[in-house]
Amino acid sequence: DIVMTQSPSSLAVSAGETVTINCKSSQSLLSSGNQKNYLAWYQQKPGQSPKLLIYLASTRESGVPDRFIGSGSGTDFTLTISSVQAEDLADYYCQQHYSYPLTFGSGTKLEIK
Amino acid sequence: QVQLKESGPGLVQPSETLSLTCTVSGFSLTSNSVHWVRQPPGKGLEWMGIIRSGGSTDYNSALKSRLSISRDTSKSQVFLKMNSLQTEDTAIYYCTGRLDYWGQGVMVTVSS
Fold first, then answer.
1. Between B44, B61, B104, which is nearest A107 by CB?
2. Of residues B77, B92, B82, B79, the one with CA closest to residue B62
3. How confident is the model over B5-54, as pLDDT tens digits?
4. Residues with Cβ < 8 Å from B16, sequence gap 6 or more?
5. Chain A touched by B97 (CB under 8 Å)
6. With an 8 Å Cβ cutoff, are B58 and A42 in contact?
7. For an engineered disulfide with B8, which of A29, B20, B30, B97 has Cβ 3.0 to 4.6 Å away?
8. How many CB atoms lie within 10 A of CB A39?
9. Does A7 reach chain B within 8 Å, measured CB to CB?
10. Residue B57: its pLDDT value, please?
11. Contacts B104 to A, Cβ<8 Å
């Protein structure tokens, strides 16, 4: 199974700041066939179901604000949230969708100061 | 619009079998996959398994000996069955269509 290691486990920032969340996979998520990275990011607000933000490492789901940016390739990935807003208070998870069984990172709790 | 709704017992006795149903609307089970994901209280997400559009399945390695996912396409329903439940199986159980449509989740407590 592919192990996903996510960091930090929590962080607190002020509104307007930029946040970076890291995710590392135990093996490459890059498909040699199509050169796509099979990594997704989810947002889970308190008391809500998870929401898909980004898939294929950098493709935003429809309706996701462009301040959410996914990047990275191979085994190292980043979710950057620029100009954080109060509504971004949530837990964020990475997930590999390269091979089964699918696996999630342990999550990052984002708090707004 | 696409909707998924989980249903099942809120309380299960240890060692018994959990049976959950995911009822979908606006979403074809013969064209799309459905996953089950669970989340213990205060903890992270755990992928449990998938039933694909063609009916094939894959499971979490740690759960595959206890877990079964099936469906009834005529009723637009997907089923999860997991046996030998223990207290650590207490969690919110979500069904999700293609991982981009999510149900509200159902809380299952394993306790005597």
1. B44
2. B82
3. 999 999 999 999 999 999 999 989 999 999 999 999 999 999 999 999 99
4. B83, B85
5. no
6. no
7. B20
8. 30
9. no
10. 98
11. 49
Residue numbers in B near A52 (CB within 8 A): 99-100
pLDDT band at A95 (very low <50, low <70, confident <90, very high): very high
Cα of A82 to nearest chain B Cα, Å? 23
End-to-end CA distance of chain B: 39
Are B102 and A49 a contacting pair at CB < 8 A?
yes
Helical residues (DSSP H) of chain A, grouped into ranges: none
**Residue by residue, what is the 3-state secondary structure of chain B?**
CCEEEEECCCEECCCCCEEEEEEEECCCCCCCCEEEEEECCCCCCEEEEEECCCCCEEECCCCCCCEEEEEEHHHCEEEEEECCCCHHHCEEEEEEECCCEECCCEEEEECC
Which tokens go with A92? 């964020």
- Give yes or no for B105 touching A (CB within 8 A): yes
pLDDT digits (tens, 9 = 90+) for A48-58: 999 999 999 99
Q: Rounded CA gap, B24 and B98, in Å?
A: 12
Report helix, strand or coil for A86: helix
Identify the CA nearest to B96 among candidates B85, B88, B105: B105
